[in-house]
Structures are given as structure tokens and as C-alpha cells.
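Posting for a labmate who doesn't have an account.
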Amino acid sequence: MKDFISKMHIALKEANETKYWLQLLHESGYIEDKIYDSMILDNKNIIGTLVNIIKSAKS
């Protein structure tokens, strides 16, 4: 179980890094608002899911 939780933490870290890059790309004008809004929403859903998985696995 510890290995699974560790892998989920890695996935969460990667999702947070993806959020950073999406914000950077949006602020630089590389991606449009509509695309950014869609991708950041998906990213937030992934982060939320990973957080829930980690919490459930720890309990």
C-alpha cells in the first residue's frame, strides 16, 4: 500500500507541475482563454481525484 500511495503522491506532484505550466502558457499568450479554461478545469479535477485517492488509501 505504501508503494501505491507513493505513486499517487508522484502523480499529484506532476499534476501540480502541469498546472504551473498551463498557467505560464496562458499568461504568456501561448494558449487562448477557452483552451486554458478547459484544460485547467480538467487539471483541477485530476488533482482533486488524486487527493481523494491518497486520503482514502491512508485511512
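Reply:
Got it, the C-alpha cells are right above this. The mean pLDDT is 97.
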